[in-house]
Fold these 3 entries.
Entry 1:
Amino acid sequence: MRIYVVADESDRDGGFVVERLVQRGAEMIELDRADLPVFVDLEDPSMLLLLGSARGAHEPASIDVVARESALARAALRAGVPVMAICYGAQLLARALGGTSYEADDPELGWLRVDTIDSVLCPEGPWAQLHTDVFTPPPNAHVLGSSWYGPQCFVDDSLGARSIAWQFHPEVTTETYNRWIDEDEGMIRAAGKDPGELRRQALANAARSRNAAHRLTDDALEFLGVGISDTPVSDQLNAR
């Protein structure tokens, strides 16, 4: 099963989500969002995974990149290929389906709980947050979770195939979150947050986050109808 992962060349870390997809037997194929092919050039796709980014989907400088990724996502859905999206990917997908995104008044930082109406596809967490943008959901989407900052999860099937998007970061590992803190320390301090406290939260939630991300990935695959093996590759090998 081929899953195409759309990410920036400088940050392709799909963390716990990709880890679980590989355990479930998926072949991960990386695509650079700054140089995307058209959908018809993808070979036998089972799903698109749109990862996060330091860029903003609303930024004028990213208009061409956003347009290409939006076109790829819409073409996939129309062809029956589901889409999973995280943070920037969620903002991108919202815009691709008729919603929008914009810079928030304040960044959303730390391990925070979300308000949910679906504890399977949008568990309350706490989940890792580190972003300065929010999205307005597409007109035909169903919002499953939110926080004080804005929507946290939506699902949509208006173009045919199903999609799911999370504003929070189920994929993020402690190492990646610490790197993001290093890269955004100025913004974090300007928001009145302590980078050291965010590091402590990342460490304290490490084991729980991995288990929660694996479970969420499994449930999302079932919702999306992606036919990846129910048995992790490690278990298949042990059974031989």
Note: The CA atoms of residues 87 and 167 lie 4 Å apart.
Entry 2:
Amino acid sequence: MADTNYPLARERLLALAALSFAVFLVANDLTIFPAAITTIEQEFDTDITTAQWVINGYILVFGVLVISGGRLADIYGRRRIFLTGAGIFVFFSILAALSIDIQMLLVARALMGVGGALIWPAILGMIYELVPKENPGIAGGLIMGVCGISDSIAPMFGGLLAEFASWRWIFLMDAAVATLVGFLCWKWVVNDKPDKIEEHIDYLGVITLSLFLFSLLLALDLAVDHGFKSPINVCLFIVSLLFLGAFIVVERNTGRDALIPEDVVNNSRFFVAGIVTLLLSIVFFSALLYIPQFLIRVRSYSPTFAGMGLMPMMMAYGLVSYISGKLYKKVGAKVIISIGSVCICIGMFMLSHIDENTSFQEILPGLLVIGSGIGFFFSAVTTAAITIVAPARAGLAGGIIYMFQIAGGALGLGMNTTVVAMAPDLITGIDRAFTINAYLALVGLVISVLFVEGKSLKEDFDEESTF
């Protein structure tokens, strides 16, 4: 790679500030739209199932392409891929804001996911490159802390814009912020374009992996409405397995240019972090989905105030992420990830006892415990996963870990919706779903204790320096 040294601490801080804005942009865009769906549905005279694809289509494209985006960033330079992604994001945000019908909106919104898939892994790679190598937990704390802040205000902000202005302003704001972030990163982040490109993109691997992920995520998404046993879902799961097999065959025959190189495939520590991420993402997304549903449908909150109901959890998430980053060097991944799993498990059990008379004040402690657990868990597991692999694979590792998060969210959405739908009423369904999720968090805790690397990262770096 090209020289990425920063001459002064000031330049390094400015670069981190620019990338923090970029993290805020991506995190904000994933959580700002739920409160605006109803107004989109009304303006285009469509149904909620169609309008919901403003969210689902973006996440689906993002999830399918994020691993390929990480590989592109590692090969061709993270700043270059980031700026390319920002340009795509801006263009299709403006197109979405100008949509004349629901079809145009959904296509533009889905194509915004291409930009997001290029932006996110490039951000992760650049941030971990900027922080001191002996204390990379700072990067995880910064990333997840900014995500927590963004996630805490985005639902409320989206509701306010949709209620008092127009949902189109959300897209125009996206375009403006992405333009600003792109300029700041172009100005302050050192160009890491490689002097000589020694690896090349495995296009057949990209195609087979993308088709596998598309089939899998679409099946998980459609399971919400059609159930896991529906013919279309069974066919999609079979197709996804076929493309997974094709991807494995392609990768074995590609060698050093494989989309997911052999050193990553054979890294069991990395994939343990991925599995734990998948399990805990199921739990996290269940709280994001059903706490607002409880507040709106049982406690008669407005969409704006229901979005505000998540703020304590997300603010705890952001604050504890920062603390987690500070602790990482001292105690290592195992301890912090395990603490996070314990908190998520306890918080879910606390929330599983709600009924129609439960007030917001009574669920607040559970939200704060879950938020704290999320803050400990996601910042530490992201740092562990990215630093377990070689520095040149940071973008790819970030993409894969985020793919585990998205897959966990999609699986959690389908599973929890099925559990709630089979219950006699919403309250009973939430009770059952949250209880199941608490046990999943317990499984994640056991895996963390038994298999996540327990040494502090400083020891890992000392060991690697001896080879």
Note: The chain has three domains: 8-135+155-198, 202-258, 263-453.
Entry 3:
Amino acid sequence: MVTDSRTSDPFPGDGRAGIDAALVRRLIAAQFPQWSALPVTPVQLDGWDNRTYRLGDELTVRLPTAEQYALAIPKETTWLPVLAPALPVPIPPIVAQGAPGEGYPYDWSVRGWLDGDVARPGRIDHLPDFAVAVGEFLLALQAVDATGGPAAGRHSFHRGAPPAFYDDETRAALAALTGRVDTERAAGVWQEALDASRQGQPVWFHGDFAVNNLLTKDGRLAAVIDFGTCGVGDPACDLVIAWTLFSGASREAFRDTVAQDDAMWARARGWALWKALICLAKVVDAEDADDAAEAEGHRRVIEEVLADRARQR
């Protein structure tokens, strides 16, 4: 999951410096000694909210880097086993939940390893077919009985809630980017998102339905991971992938599959703009090559959202 405006109590420093393989080995030895002989190695592609380590060949250990991210651990332990049987591809199997210890202050979890590669376009056989599979996954998730599920809020960083929570932040980013992007049109699309209220009962949403959380195998969708921001509410936030991964025929295939109304798409455009705007504002003047490439990616999303809105008029 990429960084946004979340607030937290880090452990210690930036929340990552105190977490390493030695800590994982100590936690496993103290709480799950049956696995203490298994090797512990960092995963190749790690996240910011959590650090993940391989535990042997079949398990992983997931440790939140801050208190607010740790809210996801008991939520996932409770709800992922409920969601999994209804979904068309695997999601992380929860094997055990650990407790604070060895100087580490949060709950943590042991999960089954899911094999696959992050869903980069070059790893996908046919992007429109992949878009259909992704859309079908979201529909299956939304169809799971939401009774008693965690309502959108702090634990989901307000994914699943109205995008108005991020209004001040979005408008600050628009002001900072004046002259850098078409802020007038972007402000109009953002206002449409604020005005597009949702009707109907709350449903399950993933909350961070992004490329890094979709795994492929043999060119097809193989698994969906990282449900830390999942909950029950408005699934518009999950449609952002329409602009971050899909375009042209694949975007239309995704749009046709999820079959959402205009108001849902208006809120989805708002979620996409919010993230792209605040992230671009942080790196717009960066000289570092990686940051410049990141900035270009955020610009592309903004332009895609604005162009897509123009086509829908």
Note: The chain has two domains: 21-114, 118-312.
